[in-house]
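Fig. S4 source data, part A: sequence.
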Amino acid sequence: MSARFLTLRLTDTEAELLARLGASTGLTKTEIVKRALHGLAKTMPAGEGGLFELGAARFGRHGDDTRQAADIKRVVRARLDAKRPG
């Protein structure tokens, strides 16, 4: 299993809540966040694909791989056109 990392900015209230949850449950911050993600994923309607769809609106143009492919193709074509003798 490869490690994935997540950095969060928490407000003072959220940091306090996280600390209280850790103290009362004995869980690490990591385990609390993982359980929260899984709990949120379970509450989603069955038709939605999971956590990706939940955050898809936040990904912007990087959320749609076809747009990325189109952007890459446009850049490559422009570079090739620039190299062609005219």
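Fig. S4 source data, part B ends here. The helical segments are 12-25, 29-42, 51-55, 65-83.
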